[in-house]
Amino acid sequence: MKYMKLGTKPDTFYTEEAVRSVVSDVPADLIIHANNTKYQLHKCGLLQRLCSDADDGDEEPVPVALHDIPGGEEALELCAKFCYGISISISAANLVPAMLAARFLRMTEAVAKGNLVAKLEAFFDSCVLQGWKDSVAALQAAWRVSGWGESRIVQPCIDSIVEKILMPPAKVTWSYTYTRPGYTRRPHQSVPKDWWTEDVSELDVEVFRSVISTVRASRQLPPTLVGEALHVYACKHLVDPLRAVANGQAQSAAAEETLARQRRVLESIVTMIPAEPGSVTGRFLLRLLRVANYVSASSSTRAQLIRQAGSQLHEARAADLLIPLPSDPQAYDVGAAEAVLEHFLAQFQRPAAPDERRRMSAAMDKVARIFDEYLRTIALDRDFPVAKFVDLVECLPDIARSDHDGLYYAIDIYLKEHPELGKADKKRLCRLIDCRKLSPDVRAQAISNDRMPLRTIVQLLFVEQERTMGAASHGAAVAPDRASVDAISRLAARTNEDEPASSADQKSDVHRPRRDHTRVADGVTAAMTRSLSESTKTPPLAGRKERTTQERSSRMRNKE
């Protein structure tokens, strides 16, 4: 940051009983009240405008009230020190308040040659606007002091910043802030394309929007670079609701102002997202959706985020779908996750070229794994209704899941966390699992899982038998999965426990579906046992030849 030094005298201002005075042999004849500060000064030529209406023959000090002076009392004191020739330093940090105060006091060339306004304007044009960080600091200071009111400072700063952003990275010679994780600046290292994003993230959102809009209008930067700038700005100014909930930062009346500011920042960022696909990541969009729920953003903002996040859902992770409810940040908004998934699936209803279809098919596989992992987290909620969980599972069509391993784990977690479920609800859940889409290891685990309903285990045993018989038909002696065989005895025990005890029930099969399952289980038990026996017994060749010879001899004797 560049500095300009004015004046040569030492600082002789002092404070006594809340009054700022300057050491002088001449009594003070000018009293200035600026907010809570009182100044005792002198009627020097540079400050003549303040006492132009006063009587020169009046011996009493002239009181002047400057409670609304632009730049505040610090800028007023800076101007006063300049009048006394006291040494002052001007930089981008205090340039704007000093310039506003000097213009208000009419410290121009018309009053005295070499006055403060001319010196400050020369420093602004020749030094501040030529530097990168100086331009950013001056712009932010001008905005905080007067907003768009001081266009003589704001607009030149914006133009200077945009000009430097559009410059090729190879021509960047000034210092900039870049603190990405894992990035270490080395000598002669090339400048990253997004070198400017962290510094402009210091700006107020309205000024930031003006900079980004001007950059986008130039069409010289790719949309992904603009998206990265939005990501950096959001990370700096928006709180992550999941972290806020973990830290116990609940919404309260005291935090309402903060939430309103966050809402304003969020909605501004969403309107700045480039329309080009891939300009921002799916994970970033879902993060913005979480914030939108947390700060109660407008319905149009949420709808836009849901639509855009749905088109890029395959880029996300399961944790990104955990969107807190506005009314209860401890709970998750399942409806928002369903809406995102619905917009993702809507893409498959449109005609597409073969290459695009293959890409979409790969995206569907990723989304299926993401959603099943998301279901595992939802299953941990002990208050989540079984009907709603079934509906959530069915949001993803069967064709989308190439395997059901993830779905099995999610349902098993739900059964474990909800031991009070009745048999009907357990059956309803487990009917969602396609046993043929389970991998051998998961199928073996499911067979030995006591939480699985009897009907599901029977289906799993059938699938295991089909696998064994299919392998045997191709000449391979494959034994059934050992876990399947070990489960047979437990299956028989469970069917015995489910047997009705009354003689009336034994005479009729009405309303006793377990009887059918028992017969099926007995058949599967016998078939699995025979398969195991046939696959594990391999009689010696010599023994087989000996029995064949004996059989032939026996048949010959019978013929005689």
Please tell me about this protein's structure:
- It is built from 23 helices and 7 strands.
- The chain has helices at 72-83, 95-104, 116-128, 132-146, 151-165, 197-200, 205-218, 223-237, 241-246, 256-272, 282-294, 299-311, 334-346, 354-379, 386-394, 405-417, 423-430, 440-447, 454-473, 482-498, 503-507, 513-536, 541-559; strands at 3-6, 13-16, 19-22, 30-34, 37-41, 62-65, 88-91.
- With 560 residues, it is mainly alpha-helical.
- The chain is elongated.
- Helix content is 55%, strand content 5%.
- Helix 4 (132-146) packs antiparallel against helix 5.
- The longest helix is centred in the middle third of the chain and has 26 residues, at 354-379.
- A 5-stranded mixed sheet has the order 2-3-5-4-6, covered by helices on one side.
Care to give the gist of this entry?
By secondary structure, this protein is mainly alpha-helical.
- Radius of gyration, taken over Cα atoms and rounded to an integer in Å: 40 Å
Indicate the low-confidence ranges by residue numbers. 499-560
Structural class: mainly alpha
Largest sheet: 5 strands, mixed
In one word, what is the shape? elongated
Helical residues, percent = 55-70%
Strand order of the largest sheet: 2-3-5-4-6
Number of helices: 23
Topology (SSEs and partners):
Layout: E1 3-6, E2 13-16, E3 19-22, E4 30-34, E5 37-41, E6 62-65, H1 72-83, E7 88-91, H2 95-104, H3 116-128, H4 132-146, H5 151-165, H6 197-200, H7 205-218, H8 223-237, H9 241-246, H10 256-272, H11 282-294, H12 299-311, H13 334-346, H14 354-379, H15 386-394, H16 405-417, H17 423-430, H18 440-447, H19 454-473, H20 482-498, H21 503-507, H22 513-536, H23 541-559
Parallel strand pairs: 3-5, 4-6
Antiparallel strand pairs: 1-7, 2-3, 4-5
